Each structure stands twice: as C-alpha cells, then as structure tokens.
Amino acid sequence: MSGAEKSRVVYGEEEYPAIRAAARAAAEAVDQLVAMTRPGMSTGELDAVATAVIASTGGESAFLGYRGYPGQICISVNDEVVHGIGLPDRIMRRGDVVSLDVGVQLGGFIGDNATTFIVGGDTPSKDVARLLKGTREALDEGIAAAVPGNRIGDISAAVERTAKRHRLGVVREYVGHACGRELHEPPEIPNFTGRSKGPALKPGMVLAIEPMLNLGKRHVVTDKDGWTVRTRDGSVSAHFEHMVLVTNDGPEILTWRKT
Ligand code: MF3
Ligand code: CO
Asked: Residue 213 sits in a domain of what CATH number?
C-alpha cells in the first residue's frame, strides 16, 4: 500500500448497506437513550440501560474494551468534554448538559455518533443555548464540506469558522476520524486547520465528524481515571457527532436522529 492509500480508507458500493445498518443502529441507540434519561438517574444506570438498548439493535458496544475503555457508552456531563464513564454515584440533575456518545458494532462495521442535550428538557441559559446551537451548526457546516473535490482540511475549516462565529473554544486534543470496519480509521478530521489540508475526499469514504466545543477556553485536562476529559477552566462543553458517507451526490448522513 502506498502512503497516500494508507492515509484514507475507501469502501465499495457493495459495502454501503452494511455500513448504513451499523450507523443506523448507533443513531437509534442514541435517540432511545436520550429519551430514557431522567433527572435523578445516575450515569452508571444509563450505561447499564445502554447494554440492552444496543443489544436491541442487534449489535454490541464498539467502545467496551476499546483500549481498555470500561463502559458501554460515553456519558459526559457539563464541564466533561468526552469519554465520561458511567458511575453509580454520578447523578444527572435537571438542567445538566449531557453528551451521549455511542458506538455500535454490527455486521462487521461500526456506527459512531453523539449528541448533547439538557436533562429534563429545561430551557437553557443564553450561553448554553449558544453552545448547543453553535456546536450543532459547526457539525452541519463540516458535513456540508464533505464532498468530492474538497479535502479533509475543508471540513476542519468549516467547523472552526463556525465555532469562532459563536465564540466557542475548539478542543484540539481529540478529533474526528474515518469509521468503517474499525472505529478509528485514517484520516483524522481535526476541528481546526493546520499546516496540511489533508487527503482529498473520495466517494466511499465514511467520516465521523465530531466537533467538541467549549463555552470557555479550548484547553482540557484528563481525570485520574485516565479517560474523563474535562475543560481546564470548568466551562460547559458540547459534542455532536455524525457519520457521513462521501458520494458524488453529496454527503449522506448515516446517523440522522431526532435528537
Ligand atoms: N466517539 C468517540 C471516538 O470516536 C468515542 C471513543 S471512546 C472509546 O473516539 F470508548 F471507544 F474509547
Ligand atoms: Co467518533
């Protein structure tokens, strides 16, 4: 394999049905888990519920055991950015900003997606509303740039530009990725632009685009548990993730959801 080929994974049309099925399973699991989240529930309870929800899709967790990850899903509350582990004493309160990230392995492929919402469905403060709207919009703009002829860096630029417009901090330590037979495949998809514009986008690439944006500064720290990533300044963070198939007819969102 040449360097250029190793830097990106391209799937064939005969694989699309199985890729779509894995992505759908992951999206439906997120929608169900959002609907089941109640004030007073612990993140440990929600993680336990996720076992059954994921099983009901016919798949299994793609996160459990990945590099030793101990949970079924990731549940990140308020200043937690990503990779929060469900715990029995971590109670979710009305008004908390919770992000759920779910990976499902099904039929040889992996679906991966995430959303952020307010527990109890309360009206958010002005700042939290800006955070949720801005992060969702950054994802939408990133997806719109996922077309043949563009490069990975065009997705990054669209996400970063939208984050800046909403005055949100862009996390740099964690990035999006291609996703197919493996959870993380090349190329990486940063939410900020760098020196290289990255590989060209081709039909058959399956991209997990996932802005992680903060109300405060971009910097993050990792807890002693080795997983939970939180904002250094304690500000609230949001995370939205969709999987997208690059086609000649434009980006096909594989993980469309209600939430
Ligand atoms: N959606 C995240 C990612 O793409 C979740 C990975 S968490 C882990 O990296 F549990 F799998 F490690
Ligand atoms: Co991901």
From this structure: 3.90.230.10
Residue 83 placed within a domain: yes
Alpha-carbon gap, residue 131 to 117, rounded angstroms: 11
Q: Which helix (H) or strand (E) holds 169?
A: strand 169-170
pLDDT given for residue 103 in this prediction = 98
Q: Per the domain annotation, does 96 fall within a domain? A: yes
How many angstroms does the Cα of residue 210 sit away from the middle of ligand 2?
A: 6
6 φ/ψ sector (left φ>0, alpha ψ -120 to 50, else beta): alpha
Instruction: Tell me what the pLDDT averaged over the chain comes to.
Output: 97
**Cα 120 to Cα 153: distance, rounded to the nearest angstrom:** 37
The total number of structural domains that make up the chain:
1
Structural domain containing residue 115: 3-253
Q: Ligand 1: residues within 6 Å at CB?
A: 63, 66-67, 69, 74, 83, 101, 103, 112, 114, 177, 208, 241
32 has pLDDT over 80: yes
Q: Which positions ≥6 away from 133 have C-beta within 8 Å?
A: 166
pLDDT, residue 7, reads: 86
Residue 258 lies in a domain: no
Closest atom of ligand 1 relative to the 101 alpha carbon: 1
- Per-residue model confidence (pLDDT) at position 55: 98
